[in-house]
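Q: What does the assembly look like in three dimensions?
Context provided by user:
Components: two
Sequences:
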Amino acid sequence: MNSEVCQLKELEVEHFEIREVLRCILHTILFHRALGLVRPKDVDLELFEITYVQCGDVELDRKIDDKIDQFIDRVEKHPNKKNQICLSFYEVKNKQATWFTNKVERLYWEQWYINLNVAQHPKGHFGKSHHSKVVVDRGDTAADERSARRAALEASLRDVLFQIIRFVNEKKDHVPPIPNLEGVSFPYEITISSSSDSAFGMDMFKRMLQTGHPTMLS
Amino acid sequence: MATYKGNTHSEPAKMEQIITEFFAKSLHIILESRCAYVSSRNYSGEQFLSSPSPSSSSSSSSSFRPRDKWFNLALRDCPAALENIDFWRQSNLEPMIVDVVLNQRPSNWDPLNNRGIVRNLSGKERYYYGSDSDEFGCETKSEKVVERWFLQYESKKSCGGNGGKRSNCTSSHSLYKKSILLLRSLYVTVRLLPAYKLFRDLISSAQICSYNLGHRVSSFVEPFTRREEADMQRFVFTPVETSCGRLCLSVLYRSSVSDVSSEPSTPMSPQFIQEYVGSPMAEPLKRFSSGPVSQSSPSSSPFGRRHSWSYDLYRASPPSANPSPSPTYSDSHAAISKQLSNRLPPAGLPRHLHDETHDIHMKNPSYDEYWPSPAFSPSPSPSPPTHVPGSQLSKVLLRSESAPLNIPTSRLSSIPSLPNNQMMPPSPPMKATRLIVSKRDAHMGLYHTSSTVDKLFSFSRDEPGKMSNVKPSSNNSSKSYSRNSSRLSFQDDYDDGPFVVDDDDMIDPGSRPSSFDQTRHPSGPFDPDGVFPVKKSQDAAVGALVRMLKKAPPLRQDISVNSHLLNQFSEEPLKELSVATSELISSKTTADALEELRGYKEMKDLLLKQGGNISSE
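A: Here is the predicted structure of the complete assembly.
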């Protein structure tokens, strides 16, 4: 089985924008992978003039929010790292238990990497902007700067959404047959990592040992 | 493996059915998010239910219907799509081309000029504002195709009658899966294209939009000219290959439709903050248009109200708003003219206009950006005063069936908590939630406060002059009272600051009683003014007082409803919202009603005492 990887364009976000941006992206991906019967739900972003679609599954919604909480937590603890969220879809294969492996094997068939670069600000001081000289800045220019930055982020976010759409469109063959899904979506997991985090590599390595690397399976 | 319904037997037959349903579903997805009278956002649910839908099933919206199971995508009903697809089914897998058409008012009606129209209030334009029906009826329209969707099944020639069977191409299962994927991305894409913004604005502010969205479904269209096409971008979905051909979907869309959108294409947050700041602060006069819904509203100036009631009672025929009052509208009409006559005494023409501009200003907050601060001062209008009420007709109807109140009650505006919310224009949940954002982005306020302050200052600066225009026929004392109190309320607003108000609204509904108390204090000095006119016409005052007490609503209210309703407030869609607010108005004031009653009693005692004095003299 093929495994496809999609690296989404990096986004420069501020701390308070993380949640919306991640929600928007994660839900959009999951909507494309929730091939069970869904009743879509439109959601307008609060910070941007963008409407995205959720598949209207409470459990999924909650899981995403939990992961975003984790991510924000991590950003606060390790402010100086580029952070990445990986959304992986897998199939579960039951394998005969042996001495070395778990009974259940996960076959990853798709991975999405969401790359966020969180701008560093003194937390909670929204009045201050990128530079320490802002204190001297006129309110006007600071606001202009802010809205320009916001508009740029909105455009980038839109690009990312179209990137998702294109990917979904171009790569259809690797998507497994639709099972009789209990939930709406294929099984998935969301992992958080920082690029400069050495534990991340270790983690991946361990996972490869456990499950076999996706590409090795095909 | 997902199942799809149908009594198909052979693989090609299954394929064909999938393809047919794919066309239907695609059309449904497109029209559902472009066709204004069927809102996927559920804003116009009632309209939809009442509209004829040829094959809509009777099942409730929560359960899935057979049609929903196709491609595992449950969509809302869309009569337009159903009609068109029934028509299309009769053709034999012909291409389907869906044009999304923007019907625009003549070019002089772009948003920038709207401002002028609002201000000038020429009769015709006003009619369009007030009319809920066909806003584009007799005007020349300009039509523009903003999106053109191509749906096509390209069949291969080699695929004959027996061909394709068990070919190494796509199985029907695979075709079905890929169709699902394609439809998912179509569903997301229609919401990301620029035209969706038009649709969203349209359904969220139906009365104001200067455009409408239509659609045409056909098998072939006149191609765009090269010049037309130069303005457009193309997005091509990857075709789904089948054993006999391929399923193609693409769209040509106009990349900039912002010039027709009613909302300026400026960054979001400033806009919303301004909207929010603008509505409660720049609109204090608005408040008593629905404030009186609860007759026991926390007015600490009962004599101001007395005055309004007596005005109401003694004025034979207030200026009629409706050019042709019809009997069926008599109730509401009367209420409106009552209200108008009280709020807007005939001589106070500039004030009419002022209110009017506020109304519209509020209705469509996005115009905020275009309003320079001088717009808040009454611009002398060439239009006759009788027109103004007419334009308010529909809006007032929408807002409340309120009883009249006098201008002094504009002090209500200094109550930071509820009235602001009550007076928010009926706005979609989207906007309501964005208010919260505005709070989060409160730092942006710095930028805007200045302009708001400008407005406020210009407003209050003009206020005395305007107020002295109000009702020259009345005596001096009432005039001065009005002026003082209303100016006072503006200052209160200013002192509070928009974001303090905001916080109170959104976070702490429980703090309301105390804020009532606070705002009551400043009124103290002016009470003598309020009492003074009583001496002029005691009989009238007593009569009014008696009537007021008779008409007072029963004091049965459930305070606990309050917080519940408030919680709903940010989430409920439009309709519930308006219901909730009116309930709020009537339910929040038990304590205040008692207090008011006490005030009346004191008043009565005072009157009796004075009467006694007079009779003893």
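Follow-up: The longest strand of chain A covers residues 104-118.
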